[in-house]
Structure to design on (189 residues):
């Protein structure tokens, strides 16, 4: 069984996994478009995202303050396996029902948070490490823009997003989404 959320995660996850698997150990201390994170820090954050959002799909509490270093032996393959589990967790239609007890948001919105994190942080990591940026599926972009329409201001107030960065009128859908999350699509290391 699948849900719209799991289907969209299944589209974006392989793109992010490819980027993660392409990061070499000598790139871990590089800066990223997220000024508070190096590549290592952002990898650990994204790893936390894929693990914690599995628990959130099951309406379990998560501890975002726990700062685990996931970059141990086999971390690239471990990340790939965790993204598969993330997709599976959101494949259950019950995962989208009701309100998240830990976050106080509709479960569907919580699932979209995982989607936007994988999409945007996949770009962050690709840009930081000089990897090619794969095209993002239009359905993923539409869901990301819909999420930002509903939650962008709240996300900014909570520190999840920076102030919007203006983009050109003819900017791509991804560049507009990046700008809406506070990223400069022209950022270079």
């Amino acid at each position: 069984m699948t849900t719209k959320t799991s289907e969209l995660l299944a589209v974006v996850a392989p793109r992010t996994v490819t980027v993660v698997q392409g990061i070499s150990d000598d790139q871990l201390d590089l800066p990223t478009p997220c000024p508070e994170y190096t590549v290592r820090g952002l990898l650990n954050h994204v790893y936390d995202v894929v693990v914690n959002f599995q628990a959130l799909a099951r309406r379990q509490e998560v501890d975002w303050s726990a700062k685990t270093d996931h970059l141990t032996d086999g971390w690239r393959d471990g990340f790939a396996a965790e993204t598969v589990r993330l997709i599976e967790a959101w494949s259950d239609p019950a995962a989208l029902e009701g309100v998240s007890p830990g976050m106080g948001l509709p479960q569907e919105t919580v699932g979209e948070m995982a989607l936007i994190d994988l999409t945007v942080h996949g770009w962050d990591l690709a840009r930081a490490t000089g990897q090619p940026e794969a095209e993002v599926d239009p359905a993923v972009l539409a869901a990301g823009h819909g999420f930002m329409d509903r939650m962008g201001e709240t996300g900014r107030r909570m520190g999840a997003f920076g102030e919007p960065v203006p983009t050109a009128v003819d900017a791509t859908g991804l560049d507009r989404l990046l700008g809406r999350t506070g990223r400069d699509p022209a950022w270079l290391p």
Observations:
- DSSP finds six helices and no strands in the chain.
- The radius of gyration is 16 Å.
